[in-house]
Amino acid sequence: MVERLLVEGAVLDADGPRPGYVLIEGGHVVEIGRPGFAPRYPGARRVRGIVTPAPVNAHTHLGDAVSVREPPRVGLEEVVRPPDGLKFRLLAETSRARKVDAMRRALARMEREGVRGVIDFREEGVDGVAALRAASRRSPLKVVALGRPLARPLDPGEVDALLTEADGIGISSQAEEGAQIRRTLARACRTRGKRYALHASEAVREPVEAYLDPRPDLLVHLTQASPEDLRAVADAHVPVVVCVRSNALWGRANDLARFVEAKVRLLLGTDNVMLHAPSIWRELEFAYVAQRLARRPIDPLVLFRAAFVEPWDWLGLPEQARLGAGGPAVPIVLKLPPEDPAYQVVTRATEHLILRPATPRSERTG
Ligand SMILES: [Zn+2]
Questions:
Q1: Could you read off the pLDDT of 241-295 as tens digits, one per residue?
Q2: Which CATH class is domain 4-53+322-363?
Q3: Which CATH number fits domain 56-298: 2.40.50.140, 3.20.20.140, 3.40.50.300, 1.20.1510.10?
Q4: Distance, CA 81 to ligand 1 centroid (Å)?
Q5: What is the mean pLDDT of the chain?
Q6: How many angstroms does the Cα of residue 270 sit away from the middle of ligand 1?
Q7: Which residues contact 95 (CB under 8 A, 6 or more apart)?
């Protein structure tokens, strides 16, 4: 028996918020319409709420899921700096099987919370990416693995093998990899049709001309970037993933209003699983409240788009962010009042309010 769900309230997707109803059957949208016009479907369960497409977590380090203890109260650098920061020591001393298992659990949690895509920076070279592939084999999430070659100087054979296994390369920062290495890696990505991404201006401000050369497909953080830096990033059409809880844990506020003013394309990620649960819902709420706390409020629709729309665009799958009858977008139902839908979704959508219409197992894409 296919589950039939009639949701009345609001629809919120790439086309913005609007009142309406959505009929969902077997996890797919079969009809969408204006409020008050929902026909009486026999056997349909009626729910009042908001329907959105599935969100994407645009920045994680899933391998870090091997440790969920309180992080030491030292500087961020001592935890995440390669090659001997705490996380790299933990990764080195943990068996591959345990790492695969930890990543599988993190992916399962995101799946339960409605997430359908993740962009991961995977350490540990070719084998690190292979371990992530093993962990995600049965996951319905689209897992974008950005790997990192281990050998310095670069070993062309390793880079080639890495790009066979990975969707691209995600490096630590421009300061850690010289211009020559960055250019070689970016060129290798271009040649293979893969993505090149890096962290930038997280703890200290870095020169914008350095992290934009070669031009990356994606930047992460820019916590310390100046308004001029952000404008240069926007002019170069490079989207930026912000991870506000991760920044806050180390005492740094990332004022997202500056990104909006500079017209930067924003995505949202939860960063190291060692430091934060990979919950995009918590990230959304924190980002919104932090802006209010700083008396720099931003439109919740900006945050909605950063998790539900921009990442699908970046992935080249914009239709995943637009709900329509017979379309590929996966509908997520939130049992929330339909007034101010973006505000509701951003600040109130804790995981227990999500009703994820079941997709028949055979239709999962993995
Ligand atoms: Zn990161």
A1: 999 999 999 999 999 999 999 999 999 999 998 888 999 999 999 999 999 999 9
A2: mainly beta
A3: 3.20.20.140
A4: 11
A5: 93
A6: 9
A7: none
